[in-house]
């Protein structure tokens, strides 16, 4: 009898393990490597999608590493219920973003948005726009986010959290199910004439006939036009799987600040009681009109945006959509800070989907080699192939700045 029950216990332990491995659930498993870098895997709440439909939801108080720590990388992708990667031609990942906020302690579960204070990154757009800590789109599987030692994104510093508040995280996932749609590329570019919308989802106003596409035409629960005769297929259940690498905070970690520059930012200086300041006006996305030439069609967009405080660039990467050729971040004197190139897929499998951007190249300058001065005007150029029109494209540049270098780099 004793043996039997022991066997049964071992068996049920294995069974539970197998179940845990098979079902994406939010209980996280952390692993430690020899540099004390921990890796934790999390899953968003489940996302249900029928063919052609959009899910654009915000998940509050998501699972996240807790305590005073430094984030080293953030890798995300869409997976199905068995944890398998979902290819972009089935479900297009338009974007996911991760934002930090503070909230009074002990808020009941059904009052998740009460009294929250958003804590944005270090810049540069107005209000909370592009205030995320992390965020990517279709290119997420192939894009490096790792921050080299000893740098990291500091979070959970008790001195920065007001008394009586908790630090929490929200994730917004915008995914488009393109099974059975008439025009896959049009759907992922949120072209208004493919969607059943009359109200602009971003500003809540009636749709402007001159607005051809973008997030305004890609609302939660919207549906893209289907092929004739395509009947409702099965609902897919997917998750955003996110893998975070992090270390416990100590005096050897050097913090970096997060900036996102938007090529649509038409800022102006404005008068304030405490002196001149800069009023940003980021549009987040823009339209690339089709060119009228037969070849050599290239659309170039430029912005010059000042940053308040300088420092040393540790990491940078561009974010663009299909049609992208390149984006480049320059310093005020014209020196190249980073060229970020899209990589297009060539196959069918997840991570290499033909016609989609499956990676953006990131830059890792030798720490100390690229210094920004206080008030430096950074220049951003984003280039698209405009042999066809592209709606809702983006030209963002994400970069990390250390105010000081690690001791051994000085
Ligand atoms: C489009 O909207 C109309 C009116 O709201 C609705 O009847 C129809 O089912 C919608 N079609 C799709 C494809 O969502
Ligand atoms: C800012 O304020 C000063 C003093 O009030 C004024 O002379 C100047 O014209 C203002 N500049 C702008 C851009 O409004
Ligand atoms: C733009 O795209 C068209 C159509 O795919 C292609 O023929 C052309 O070579 C591309 N141009 C550039 C500059 O990449």
Automatic annotation (TrEMBL):
Record key words, sorted: Signal
InterPro entries: Stress_up-reg_Nod19
Keyword ATP-binding: no
Pfam families named among the record's database cross-references: SURNod19
Keyword Signal belongs to the record: yes
Cleavable signal peptide: 1-28
Identification of the protein by name: Stress up-regulated Nod 19 protein
Organism of origin: Pisum sativum
